[in-house]
Amino acid sequence: MKVIPFFIIFVQYLNTGIMNHDKIKDTVNKHGIITTLKLFGGNKDIIKQTYIDNPESYLDYLIGNINIQYGINFTDNIYFRYGDTTIFLCKKYDELSNEGKIVVDDFIWNYFFLHIMDYNNTETREILKSWLEKHIPSTKHLTPISKSHEFYQSNIPVKTSNYMI
How far from 136 is each of 39, 57, 60, CA to CA, in Å? Predict the structure, then answer.
């Protein structure tokens, strides 16, 4: 990881008071949000201001990097993976209600949208639903929920990811 580009971004900000949001997005995409936050002293407002006009753009770098894995049977779950981490999981339909859900990794839901962006669960669900419908049209009929919400509903142990997005 090169520190000089971060230093340049920070010095430009100190000199002009203007943050180059495109460079910050590039930094987040290359090095992850946690590393980027550390470089800016943990100031989440820098990240928040970068994505405030288009919070969906945080997820855009995933396009082309998602690996889709299908369950054994057609009715099994569908896993959308980024590297070794399942970021979206399409659950089977509830045959009685004819509803499905897509479980979203807690890092995306809780850390980015709730903690960094200060959205509530309803706002987060709407943003994720819009992004998913646009980029993965087969999820149009699914309701996004957080992985931790799925855990509390099913009492199945769920490991929260610790990856760098």
Answer: 33, 15, 12
Is the pLDDT score of 157 beyond 70? Answer: no
Distance CA 136, CA 101 (A): 14
DSSP code string of 53-80: T-TTHHHHTTTT-PEEEE-SSTTS-EEE
Taking the CA atoms of residue 81, residue 84, residue 87 and residue 92 in that order, the dihedral angle to the nearest 10 degrees is 60
Q: What is this structure's pTM? A: 0.72
Q: Cα dihedral sign for 49, 52, 58, 60?
A: negative
Residue recorded with tokens 């979203």: 104
How confident is the model over 118-133, as pLDDT tens digits? 999 999 999 999 998 8
Give the list of residues 6+ apart from residue 44 with CB closer than 8 angstroms, or none.
Answer: 37, 115, 116
For residue 159, the Cα-to-chain-centroid distance in whole angstroms is 16
CA–CA dist 43, 76 (Å, integer): 41
Distance of CA 103 to the CA centre of its chain: 12
Report how far residue 29's alpha carbon sits from residue 22's, in angstroms, rounded to the nearest whole number. Answer: 11
CA distance 115 to 33: 12
